[in-house]
Design brief:
By secondary structure, the chain is of the alpha/beta class. Helices cover 33% and strands 23% of the residues. The protein folds into 3 domains: 168 residues, 3-Layer(bba) Sandwich (FAD/NAD(P)-binding domain); 133 residues, Guanine Nucleotide Dissociation Inhibitor, domain 2, CATH 3.30.519; 84 residues, Guanine Nucleotide Dissociation Inhibitor, domain 1 (Orthogonal Bundle), CATH 1.10.405. It is globular, with a radius of gyration of 22 Å. The structure holds flavin-adenine dinucleotide (FAD).
Amino acid sequence: MMKQFNVAIIGGGIAGLVAAIYLAQAGKSVVLLEKASQFGGRAKSAKKNGAIFDFGAHAIIKGGALYEIFQDLGIRMDGGYPGLNVSFLWNNKVSHIFRFLISRNLSWSGKKEFMKFSKTLTTINADSVPAISLKSWIEQELHDPMARRIAYAMFRTNSYSQDPDHQLAGPAIRSIARTTKKNSGFFVQDGWQTLVDQLYEKAVRSGVSMMTGKNVKEIEHDGSVRKLKFADGEEMNITHVISTTPPAVTSRFLGDTGSKSVLRWKDQARVIKVASLTLNLKRLSAPDHFAVLGLDQPVYFVNQSKFTRLSEDGTSVVNITKSNGTGGTDPKADERFLEQMLDLIQPGWQKEVVARQYLPNIVVAHDFMHIGREDRFPGPAVPEIAGLYVAGEWATHGENLGDAAAASGRRAAQRVLKDIEAGPKSTIVV
Ligand SMILES: Cc1cc2nc3c(=O)[nH]c(=O)nc-3n(C[C@H](O)[C@H](O)[C@H](O)COP(=O)(O)OP(=O)(O)OC[C@H]3O[C@@H](n4cnc5c(N)ncnc54)[C@H](O)[C@@H]3O)c2cc1C
């Protein structure tokens, strides 16, 4: 029989680590259960020949929930700011944003519209935007086809979502508006693993029991949470569980007698998938191409190492990502496509490759704020099962990506604390 805990958390990514630390700091006995051999989930980084490969290009936005929560937890976040060093890929050519905006690619009225739109993004109150799709909002604000293209590319890059017909305008605007402030978005020095490592240390020092290789298979319940069952046959009696896995996985844990709410969260979810290629390159043939947004292709290229340290020997670490919308696509075809885009952005790159990491069809978000989300704000409590809570970036209450992961983790922890305080639930001892 395993040790008794007040709270068990399933999944040791950002959401789980954040929830665990807040609960332990509030004096609860907490176990963090991760099925992989390491904590961090999609925030982990890999190291190859001294170069750091995040799980795709990962940026932090100052003013977002992740930044605020990590500051609250005393997590150090060093990094570098790209600022307005952006170019566009259009018609197989890369042009710096300023050159592009004054070029004939944009009509006179398009230029005027886009200037006004850029100003709107810095001043708009996102809360005042009605519950319309991003597409409806962009097409209401902009009429010039090229100005619209630029706007779509900006929003796609901010969320990796390629689903403007469904993406809710308000949360998307709130998120992008933060990036328009000077020195707001930054790439983390030595990669996101440095953040995971600090969260891990903090969790251990706060008294969290950290368990890897623990693959949860079932949450046993009878209207209240009773027990966790693991793939290795072990069981754990428990009364409070936070599941940070995607809603489809949490739904499987509950089996046929599951919760209507979790089923609805699973059914309403729209996934954001991408294909991501990260390369460690000895030399760049076009060092001025720092960050490139595709206007006629759903791609985003960034040389993160231009802005922060990502290799021991100073060689470059670059990433190119193709947004795949909500569906999966052919991994081989996506890889070829990304390589062709790189031929345009960094010609001759193949000769310079030291190491590469290709991640096809990876999930950036298991759900996001979209039209048709019946429960706009899923969780943190699961209404039908006392003692069960959800977190993870999909359980967003308006935040974007990592911000949603961190915010949902804190939300779940706060709700557990409130419920424990209200009683009568406490650890069942058998
Ligand atoms: C290509 C890419 C680029 C991104 N860029 C950014 C960015 O620029 N900025 C940003 O803020 N965010 C970005 N994100 C999103 C960010 O990485 C995620 O939102 C965040 O890491 C998700 O954290 P999480 O804890 O919700 O989920 P996860 O990290 O997925 O953690 C869930 C954990 O649960 C574990 N688990 C699953 N099943 C079980 C089980 N049965 N038993 C036990 N454990 C289980 C998993 O192994 C995993 O470790 C990006 C993501 C990708 C893929």
